[in-house]
C-alpha cells in the first residue's frame, strides 16, 4: 500500500488508487475555487473536465488520470480555498 503526502499529511491508500480517490478519501472535495469563488471539484472522472487538477511533485496534473505512487507530494492548486 503506497503512502503519499497530501498537503503535508501522510496518507496510505490501496494499490491502484487514483490520486483523485486518495484526495476524496482524505476529505478533499473542493479542489479549487472559480474566479467567482464557487467551489470546484472533480466532475467527469475521466480527464475531460480538468476540475480535478492538483500539483504533484511540482507538476500540475489531472488527478483522476494519475495513479498514486509511493512518496508523491500532492498540493492543491495554489490560491484556491479548500474544504479540508
Produce a short descriptive summary:
The protein is mostly beta strands. It has one helix at residues 19-25; strands at 3-6, 9-12, 32-33, 39-40, 53-56, 59-62, 73-76.
Give short descriptive properties of this protein.
2Fe-2S_ferredoxin-like_sf, Ubiquitin-like (UB roll), 2Fe-2S_ferredoxin-type, oxidoreductase, 2Fe-2S-bd_N, five-stranded mixed sheet, mainly beta, (2Fe-2S)-binding protein
Provide structural commentary.
- The protein is mainly β.
- The chain has one domain: Beta-grasp domain (Ubiquitin-like (UB roll)).
- It has one helix at residues 19-25, and strands at 3-6, 9-12, 32-33, 39-40, 53-56, 59-62, 73-76.
- A hairpin with a 2-residue loop joins β5 and β6.
- The longest helix has 7 residues, at 19-25.
- The two termini are 23 Å apart.
- The model has no long low-confidence stretch (mean pLDDT 90).
What percentage of residues falls in helices of 4 or more residues? under 10%
Largest sheet: 5 strands, mixed
By CATH, the superfamily comes out as: Beta-grasp domain
Radius of gyration: 12 Å
How much of the sequence lies in strands comes to 25-35%
> Quick one: how many beta strands?
7
Question: Unreliable runs, pLDDT <50, ≥5 residues?
Answer: none
Mean pLDDT: 90
Instruction: State the strand order across the main sheet.
Output: 2-1-7-5-6
Total domain modules: 1
Shape: globular
CATH architecture: Roll
CATH structural class: Alpha Beta
CATH topology heading? Ubiquitin-like (UB roll)
Total helices: the number is 1
N- to C-terminal distance: 23 Å
Strand-pairing-aware structural class: mainly beta
Helix/strand order, N-terminal first: EEHEEEEE
